[in-house]
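Section 4.2 – Deliverable D4.2 (structural model, holo form)

The reporting period included a commitment to supply a predicted holo structure for the target in complex with pyridoxal-5'-phosphate. Inputs used:
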Amino acid sequence: MSETFADRLESVEQRIKAACTNAGRERDEVTLLAVSKTNPPEAVREAVDCGLRLFGENKVQESQHKLPMCPSGLEWHLIGHLQSNKAKVAANLFQMIHSVDSLKLLQALENHAIQTLPVLLQVNIAGEAAKYGLKPDEVAGVIEEANRMSRCEVHGLMLIPPFSPDPEKTRAHFSNLRKLRDQLQDETGTPLPELSMGMSHDLEVAIEEGSTWVRIGTDLFGKR
Ligand SMILES: *Cc1c(COP(=O)(O)O)cnc(C)c1O
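Output (structure tokens):
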């Protein structure tokens, strides 16, 4: 990629806008999370200069080193698998955790958070054997537990679908997550406004199916 960060951001922004228009949604219903994992602080600074302030990382250890070297006043979201023994560090490093995939992890975050911590529950909607995520039928129970907690707040669901180069093949997983969310809202009476789904190659389909957070790495920062 020879374009500048600003060029790449402009092109991602155009795609998000077009997808919102197609879906009859407002642009401000979808938030762009810039996935800066593996990229150095200089790349984050360039993104900040282009007006971004919401960043996603997938590893606690990498973030512990990187975040102090990045501009202040940014919001950092964890999007990768988190081990319970790193919950204390994560609860104090990140403003939101997209990848809560067990009750044990949620309890560890609750124990260590010192203020309100918004989280999303990662669901293994396709039932893949080697993937992290709650089984669809476990989610309601975790939401009920979370409703008794004082710091962790479940704001919605997150999905990492099975990879397919053809985004249309992923559409059913996105719509299944949305349907599960609708069902859980009815069942638990808990508002679940956020759906974190869609990455560089499939953001259009995700937005058409109701995504509120698209997590974009490659098409902003270049190939890792
Ligand atoms: C790396 C990553 C992304 C970004 O993927 P791209 O294809 O580079 O846009 C999104 N979500 C998660 C969970 C990731 O680990």
